[in-house]
User: Fold this.
Amino acid sequence: MCSQLHIFAKCMNPELAKSCVLPELTELTNDEEPAVREAALESIANVVSHLPVETVRTVAVPLVVKIFQKSLTDVSSPDLTGVARLLGKLSHQLKDVMTADLRDWFVKFYCQLSRFDDPVNEGRPHSVATPTTTVRNGMRTECRRLCAYNFPAMVQMVGGGGYVVKLSSTHQDLATDDSPRVRHTVASGYHEVVRLLGDKSMSAVGIYQKLLNSKSVEVLQGLAGHMTETLKGFAKSANLSPETKHPGIPELIGPLITAEGVAGSCRQWRLHEQIVTGFSSLVHCLTTDQLYNKIVPILMKIITGKYVRPVKLASCQSLAVVTRHLRKADQRSAVVDRLSR
Assistant:
């Protein structure tokens, strides 16, 4: 029932929703059942757009802050995963009524939650696992995974200018997390981060390198589907020459070749196909010599090697795009000669 209260608010005028729905939600946030408290918090996120702005600023925001602060007082509380799940949604809904100081508080709380650790086991790497510690560790991992899922919402809050100072270290920690699920979630949302950073997206290129170099199939699956838009975003941010693409983004070459090797050696040919298809977008990021010396040999190897037909076809298509963008006639001729042998 709690999760349906925001629907009633939609049917009321803002003042009536303020007097009828908000008090009920406030009371339900103190319910003895964790599931009810989480549902109440989610309903608050859904109902704020139907409340008077002043009420949101003076009642809803302080209530959310109080819930967040309370969640950290007990590291074993199930409320933490609910807060981590809804943090991005609440930040997005409330950011327009927050002061600059309150936005900074939200970001700091997010960073603290994303590094969530259990002080009981700190400094005890060899402690004996028990059912309680196993559950607690699973909750901590889930908190970090949910924080990784909500990372784009926090980037939207601070903007491209605040990313380096306020969020880049947290982004790096999540991208190198011990849990593959956390790293996969970071990878799956990385293209959103690039889009939100806009002309500042090159400040996050180091994270992309780490994810590509992780040699994890699960992480690469999160990156591969959006490789084209990610590479185009880097190209726009790097201020490359429109004609020559000079000086290029050479730091991408090694990690991308590593990722292709990992994908090519696993049994998931669709992943390999996605990565090879993404290579065609490197024409926006690399110079002619970089394409010819580093990327063309990889594509040739796939075309002439023992790979499944869809991967070979993707390589042919990417090679056609790359060849069309080679500015030197002798390089284009060399590619054609190699194919015609």
Residues 240-341 form one domain.
